[in-house]
Amino acid sequence: MYSTQFDPRLNKIRAQCCPQSRYDVVIKSARFDQLLEQMMQRNGYLRPTDLSPTGIEALVNTVTFMDWKKYHKLSVINGFIDDLEKDYPAICTVSVIGKSVEGRNIKMLKISNSDAGNSPVWVDAGIHSREWISIAVVTYIANIIAKNFHNLPKSITNKDWHFVPVLNPDGYEYTHSHERMWRKNRAMHEGKCVGVDLNRNFSCGWGVDGDQGSSASPHSVFYRGPAPFSEPETVAVRDTIMGSRTPFKVFLSFHSYFELIIFPWGHKAEACPDYLQLLEGGAVMARAIYESSGLIYKVGSTKDLTYSACGTSTDWSYTIANIPFSYMIELRSKKHKFRLPKSQIIETGKEIWNAVGKLMEFVDQY
Q1: Would you tell me how many other CB atoms lie within 10 Å of the CB of residue 275?
Q2: Would you call 276 exposed, middle or buried from its count of C-beta atoms within 10 A (0-12, 13-18, 19+)?
Q3: Cα–Cα separations (whole angstroms), residue 59 to 25, 26, 43, 87, 138
Q4: In the chain, where are the structural domains located?
Q5: 74-364 belongs to which homologous superfamily?
Q6: 251 - beta bridge partners?
């Protein structure tokens, strides 16, 4: 049973399909997965006209929309942000900022009170499709902000929040249907799908260091693509940010699994001009995480804490888009790697929400 106390839209379904029943939805169990997938792709929620009265054989008690007790497929996530727009139209707007290689929509949720003095904040996840926890955490944060907006501190409400929960929708869908460890997008090369590492496809430092910070080989997991911004997914990021009338102040790109807070540069060894400021902001986040869960995140530049990485989104956002607070946050967990148990989603979401909140207080000082 999916209770109407959690989703009042199901009242319509009950009224039209099973008005005397104590259950919200009854459908033939054999068709449940297929039916739910089709309906979620269209609308993100069930419609009365989609439920046939014929052939009803079983009570289905597993109807689940967006929650943070498990990892969800693309259709559920897209339906979730569409629902936020419907439920909170005064502050939530959903737009399509581009199309993926395979033609899927790249959706962005903007949460804003439309104050002209707000600073834009960019938050993306899933640029590497196997990093499922990044998508769960970004939707967790978006949910908190949308549903509690008027009770949140000014450091949150004086921002225009731009959430792209699934920047690589083709890859993410592929990890659910075919290969769980797929990292790249689904770009074709010489008639085969080999994929491009989207976080090596941005123009800043693209191809620098040869095969040290990215790869020219289409078969490498670090394949940078034939040219900077050769992929529609990275073009969507570039065009949205560069097309903004108000310059972005914060850029947050979520990954997993090294438990790090890193900032430019990845394509060269020397410190970036705002190294100390970025280090301090990162330390503020790391402290908030530790106070929330006891987990220790290291803070530093990309090249210092990981390895040479050329053509990354954070190097581009800091250097080309001039976003002063540009961070890549590597979430949990070094123990489980890319397969973080679903039981840790909410705890991870809480610690990162605390970290993001503290960062917003910090950036308001500048």
Answers
A1: 15
A2: exposed
A3: 8, 5, 23, 28, 33
A4: 3-61, 74-364
A5: Zn peptidases (3.40.630.10)
A6: 122, 326
Q: What contacts 229, CB < 8 A, 6 or more positions away?
A: 201, 202, 203, 235, 238
**Residue-wise burial string across 127-153, b where 16 or more C-beta atoms lie within 10 A, e elsewhere:** bbbbbbbbbbbbbbbbbbbbeebeeee
**DSSP class of 20:** T
Determine contact, residues 325/264, Cβ cutoff 8 Å.
no
Residues in the chain: 366
Residue spans of the chain under pLDDT 50: 1-24, 28-30, 40-64
Q: Is 330 noted as a catalytic residue in this protein? A: yes
Ordered DSSP codes for 243-302: T-SS---EEEEEEESS-EEEES-SSSSSPPTTHHHHHHHHHHHHHHHHHHH-PPPEEEEH
- For residue 152, give Cα distances in angstroms to 87, 132, 357: 18, 27, 10
- The whole-number pLDDT of residue 174 equals 98
Number of helices (H), then strands (E), belonging to the chain: the values are 11, 10
Which residues contact residue 279 at a Cβ distance below 8 angstroms, ignoring those fewer than 6 apart? 263, 299, 300
Q: How far apart are CA 127 and CA 54, in angstroms?
A: 43
Nearest to 333 by CA among 321, 325, 345, 316: 345
Q: Do residues 187 and 195 touch, judged by C-beta distance below 8 A?
A: yes
Options 280, 330, 347, 351, the catalytic residue:
330
Given a contact cutoff of 8 angstroms between Cβ atoms, the answer to whether 229 and 202 are in contact is yes
> According to the model, what pLDDT value does residue 35 have?
54
